[in-house]
Amino acid sequence: MNASSTPGLPPEFVAAVQRAAMPDFARWHEMIKAAGGCEQPIRLRGERLTLDGETGELIESYSTDDEPTGYLITACGNRRASRCAACAEVYRDDTYHLIISGLAGGKGVPERVSEHPRVFLTLTAPSFGAVHTRREKAGRVNPCRPRRDRPLCSHGRPEGCSLRHAADDPMLGQPICEDCYDYPRAVLWNAHAPELWRRLTLAVPRYLTTELGLTHKAFRQQARISYARVIEYQRRGLIHVHAVVRLDGPEGPDDPPPTWATSDLLERALRAAVTEVSVPIPHPGEGSTPHTVRWGRQVDVQAIQVAAELDGIADKHVARYIAKYATKGAEDSGTVDRPIRYPSQISTLEVSEHARRMIWTCFALADLPEYGPLRLRKWAHMLGYGGHFSSKSRRYSVTLTQLRQARADYAAQAARQADGHPKPAPEKPTVTTGRWTYVGSGLLNGEHFWAEQARNRIQQARRIRQQVTERDQSQKVS
């Protein structure tokens, strides 16, 4: 079948049928399903050998020379939903299990961790200029920024906005006056946000010891603060921080907290630390007084409960909320999801004008020696933010590496069973070695349709399993 013989069919469908007619399609389809329907699968050539650790005897071997395709497919593993929806879904699930295990137990964390004081913390950025926003009250959309006297800014533009913006209005998050907006301070705030968070985690124990009248040594002997956090980009291009903060005993989630540990105490310490911590920003030139970056005035701290019926936010809702933002990036604020290497690229980017100005500012500040360590040119596509999207303290819960290893072990055991290989004896030492060569990445002509079909089926099955699990958990709680 070709396009000339089927003029009424879309070219994508014709290519998909042609790919299905190839002799290696069955094995390729099996591999793309194993990769979750990845949108950017990686093709590898090579071999893997499993040897007896004592005798050197060959136990198992695999080579892509034996594959009908001539290569092996593996998932790209990208966490961004804009780059690969399939791998982002896996990353979202892993993040959910990481968060929920630190709230309700599981994955090696005892269930009694749900009795520890824990809160859901949301931190915002300060204002660097008025932006268009959507205001709702009692189900009614109010004017954006109404001003009765309709004043003008120093650039001759209105300082207010009387429009009632729709939820998908592209004006949302854009400055009222781009020339009034403080782009250098906004970019530098994003760049210093990781350090601001680090200082916050150090300040909270100090406030707790002050309120309790303890020394720092006594506090470390009685309690530990654990956390897991993600960032969210606002439409104005600045980040939010969403975090679970928990008070444990000195050994972490396995250790009950002291009797004085309460959610109210943790909330007071967090609010006090948020208003106090700051990071100095150097000014270009010698002798200039440095600015400081601080958290915004909007701070939300809510106690986390085991169910929504209690006075607080339910733990599973928190886990879902945080996991949702683990797969999003700066592209949600109107920028791109790939690095920008040259200034000449900026003018041709398909981004909002606000994001374009922030990117330009990153490149401009990167040339100043005072801001060299921030690597703003590298993180221009992230609007200056160069930190991790998600992070956790060491003792919060299970790690992403452990979750991925458990999944890999399960897949390896399923493959051994399918091939008729026995499960290796746990007491028998083995050595696995491999040699792999990168061949390429992405889907070839005619493969997109089949990868999408596989991805949709896997995600539908995942949703069904989620619904069944939640139903069983609800019945258990009731």
Describe the model.
- This protein is an alpha+beta fold.
- The chain contains 10 helices and 14 strands.
- The strands form 4 sheets. It has a 6-stranded mixed β-sheet with strand order 12-11-4-8-7-13, sandwiched between helices.
- A hairpin with a 5-residue loop joins strand 7 and strand 8 (239-248).
- The radius of gyration is 27 Å and the shape is globular.
Topology:
Blueprint: H1 11-20, H2 25-34, E1 42-52, E2 58-63, E3 72-74, H3 85-104, E4 118-123, E5 135-137, E6 140-142, H4 183-212, H5 216-222, E7 224-233, E8 239-248, H6 263-276, E9 279-281, E10 291-293, E11 299-305, E12 313-314, H7 315-325, H8 353-366, E13 390-392, H9 400-419, E14 430-441, H10 448-477
Parallel strand pairs: 11-12
Antiparallel strand pairs: 1-2, 1-3, 1-14, 4-8, 4-11, 5-6, 7-8, 7-13, 9-10
Helix pairs in contact: 3-7, 4-6, 4-8
Category by helix and strand content: alpha+beta
Along the chain, the helix and strand elements come as HHEEEHEEEHHEEHEEEEHHEHEH
Q: Work out the strand percent.
A: 15-25%
Give the beta-strand count: 14
Q: Mind telling me the C-alpha Rg?
A: 27 Å
Shape: globular
Number of domains: 3
Instruction: Please give the order of strands in the largest beta sheet.
Output: 12-11-4-8-7-13
* Largest sheet, strands/sense/barrel: 6 strands, mixed
* N-C termini distance: 59 Å
**Distinct helical segment count:** 10
The unreliable regions are: none
Helix content: 25-40%
Q: Give the integer mean of the pLDDT values.
A: 88
